[in-house]
Sequence to fold (378 residues):
Amino acid sequence: MKLFFVAGEASGDLHTAGLAQALLARDPSLKLKGLGGAKMREAGVEIIEDITAQAAVGIVEVVGVLGYFWKLFGRTKKLLAEEKPDALILTDFPEFNLRLADAAKKLGIRVIYFISPQMWVWRQGRVKIVKRSVDRMLCLFGFEQEWYRERGVDAVHVGHPILDQLAKSTDRAAPRASLGIPPDGPLFGLFPGSRRKEFRYNYPILAETAKLLAAEVPGARFVTGLAPRITPEMVAPYGKSTGLALNPVANRTVEAFRASDVALVASGTATLECAVIGTPLVVVYDMALTTLLLAHVFTRGREHYSLPNIVAGRTIVPELYGPRARPRAAADAAKKWLEPAERAKGEADFDEMRARLGRPGALDTTADEIMKFLREAK
Fold:
């Protein structure tokens, strides 16, 4: 059988790579192609084009890459028509993937969606596209399954792969040693996001926050977790301007989460990873004003935007978005986490949130669901 995958961002590339490995373990004869990144290629997917570098931050920022994705959409649609895979498996990335689902359906190709777009958060009208074009929606969260089924979509809760990849950790000494950071003093982790545009928005705020913390918290140290496309050279000017050792570490984000006493994290999957590990965090995320206003409209003023709070169903970590994402507010929220009572409460909250994610084994469950679906559809 031939399967075609599309994952447009770093987290999607990682989870889809794990899914590809699980599928090949069940049927080594599968032919896997798609659009994705390095992780999927390593897992055995023939990558037609690496699109993870082109991911945009928000509604306004997408305009800059529209031409690229318009051309890529045409090429991908043509390739699907020529090769007629047994199924198209889509991972999040809704602006591209929902349109591709429509096109594939018209070509008679079965469509499976792995990692649902968060349309239950914003732009809920897109569920109409899912209903007509997606044969099966595989959901990470239990509430997603019910949300989709209520709207006539064939949805199955498979659990979150993050539980297979990350375990709760209370040992900060070992990861600090592995990163070359002395054991004394509270360590604040700075995580600006996986995209360069996110770095440009968020890191100036995080660097100024670090400057405040250095002045107000005795012995404060810092580590900067860098995603693959963010380089130490991008951090260097901020080290000079603040006079601080910001300790950038590349491709070791999980270790940096584990090492940190408190993390300041850009919105996205990283916030959930940090919370699953059990490291107290503050969500700090700036964006273009127009993007912020449009997001407010499309989400109908939703109370929570970060994944830990959405999964928990209440506020368990501070969220600082847009105009609220300022160094003073971020520093105050980070210092609050140093209080023993606040940390104890946070640990209990993270345990409850982790339980809501389900059980480990999500990728195996997902692979089984896909193989079952393909057999039933023959």
Summary: The longest helix spans residues 196-216.
